[in-house]
Design a protein that fits this description.
Distance between the termini of chain A: 11 Å
Strand order of the largest sheet of chain B: 10-9-8-11-12-13-14-15
Largest sheet of chain A: 9 strands, mixed
CATH class of the largest domain in chain B: Alpha Beta
Oligomer: heterodimer
Number of helices of chain A: 12
Strand order of the largest sheet of chain A: 3-2-4-7-1-8-11-10-9
CATH topology of one domain in chain A: Peroxisomal Thiolase, Chain A, domain 1
Strand content of chain A: 15-25%
CATH topology of the largest domain in chain B: Rossmann fold
Radius of gyration of chain A: 19 Å
Structural class of chain B: alpha/beta
Largest sheet of chain B: 8 strands, mixed
Order of helices and strands of chain A: EHEHEHEHHHHEEEEHEHHHHEE
Number of strands of chain B: 15
Number of helices of chain B: 12
CATH architecture of one domain in chain A: 3-Layer(aba) Sandwich
Shape of chain A: globular
Radius of gyration of chain B: 25 Å
Number of strands of chain A: 11
Shape of chain B: elongated
CATH architecture of the largest domain in chain B: 3-Layer(aba) Sandwich
Number of domains of chain B: 3
CATH superfamily of one domain in chain A: Thiolase/Chalcone synthase
Chain lengths: 377, 363
Amino acid sequence: MYIVGAGRTKFGELDTSLEGLAYDAISKAIDDSNVSVRDIEAIYVSNFLGGPVNGQLHLNSMISSLIPGCNIPIVRVETACASSSSAMNQAIIALSKFSNILVLGVEKLSGPSLIPQIDAIAMAENRTIEKENGLIFPAAYALIAQQYFKKYGISHEVLEQISYINHQNANRNPLAHFFQKNVTLDMIRSSRMISTPLNLFDCSPMSDGAVAMVITDKKKTDRDVKILSSQIATDTISIPERKDLTTFKATKIAAQKAYREAGLTPKKIDLFEVHDCFTIGELIALEDLGLCECGSACHLVEDGRISIEGDFPVNTDGGLKANGHPIGATGLAQIYEIVTQIRGEADQRQVVDADYGLAQNIGGIGGTCGITILGCL
Amino acid sequence: MYRCTSCDKTWTHSVKKCIFCGGGILCEVPGTMRIIGFTEVFIPSVNNEKVPYFVLLLEDGSGNRCLKKTFEKYSIGDSFDPHEEKSRSPIFGVVGTGLLGLQICEFLITKGYGTVLKTRDGHSIHKTLSKMEDKLSRNNSPDAVTGILKKISITTSFSDLSDCDFVIEAAPENIGVKEEIFRAMSRICDKKTIFSTNSSSLSIDQLAEVTDRPDRFIGIHFFNPVKRMDLVEVVVGEKTSQVTKNRVISELVEMGKNPIVVKDSPGYVVNRLLLPQINEAINLLEEGVATKEDIDNAVKLGLHHPMGPFQLADYIGLDICLSILEVLYSKNKTGGKKPAALLYQLCRDGKFGIKTKEGFYKY
């Protein structure tokens, strides 16, 4: 199974509509592949908040309007922020039936909204246990950070460095939400408090954007990238239902299965895209993915090992923090970066000899995790 | 927390039978909990408009965990008894089961305050309760409604108000009726109880005189609909103490309202501005300057008010509009304008607006 075409829009607060974003990404992915749109046999579309924010559901039919006359099966997949890695996972399974499938992730968050965006995003949490107690998304990750700091005796400083590295990487990615934003450690440190201990620069932005991929069952050109594994694991939706908040069980389980299926160990992987919707998420991901022991991820950050030039390059596109977080497209954006790196087309942010890459995409507060491993075979 | 008695699986949702082993389920009531984590949240969201607030992560002796929102600061390791915290909240009394009385009562119980509702008519208690249950069911799950309704007790006897921290009187806008209520409460209520009136135009100082506690007497003027209107006029009389004023304001802020402080003056701020406008709109109609529909449109589209003056007057009730206008006319030092003749006529005909199905418009 191969990714034979990849396309994405710029991320950010854009003037483009949901349909416009979707069309843009689809046409770029088709142009990038040597598959005609007429040869696409099915589409898996990922989107999180079309209903509560845009007032638009029945997205599969809306996508059908963008390719008039095709009348192919189209299905929407929603698993909160992990929607697009889940859509990819479902599309891969469907390759047993179809030869050419398009996977699309799209999200339009800026502009008029049926209900406030922060409340819409909180729909990824348990509607009674968390929402009734004011545990909005940043607060949930703040509780996780607080538990992590307490357990391992570390300070906020390491999160500031993660934020800084991601902004540095985004400055080498022209399609990133915060491309060419001059961010200093001082700005990060003194930004306003959101939910203790997390401040503004610990949080990813709400972005508009879309990403599309064409996947096939056969290799067609040398630019095609092999899908080595795609795994999904889940966990309880709500924080009080878990005993340990300093690790995400869903990540660990999905990653173990994916490493086994791909026949790889973390050391063999050349770059990682991890789900840093909040900086603490990146720190925990490094441990859950087996890059280091529990409680020691801060050393990977401090020793410069996760930078583009390090031995474990992480979030080379800027991550959710600075590349952006168009929720239903985020997982595919991570996969897009790995495809670009393995093809050797990442220009200024190219990782040397990038042969294998792993993407970790989280839904909610670790309630869903999608792991995708790609390679250049 | 629901636990399977044979295989030990746990759920936070109510389940009847274990799906793994078929075992029976035991509902565990958490004991005293310890704070194992917290975050202070600075971003407002729906139902969490007032910031900052804290979210506590709690754990009891058997490892059951839960979350709790609070405005008080705690430290990790502190023990926390959810039942104790509830009893710290002040208890309110509401006198009167008219439109505003019921709305205030409903608002207080949804905010978690224990509330004693005093009514004159013992036969209507059941009807009042089921009406309130209907309204609450629109926005809350059945479990939540049951929880909210536990906060209310309805009584016909003033003596049940004796232990309240605050009593809000929301009886008809009639000075004699209100004076009688405050005399009765003065005989019964504890010294700590702060008396307040929801009157929209009557003199606070005059009402305070009949009580045994003019220093603990204040006006708390809510607006209709109470749930949605954030403004509260806190009316400070000549003898209202600073302590009383501060307590009332901080409690109103706590429940998510935006209080403003006004001196005892006819119509306070909002009605003094609003009612002359309604009166002037009726004068315009009487003079034939424009139709009522066009005047309503003028105010909505030209002044960007959500409702026109005739729609609003029908919503408030024309009898209430007239009584406020009469107070403004007779008590206003700068000399208010006489209420319009058409308003007198509609009230004489019993056309009070929406509540009688006809006012300026038919409903």
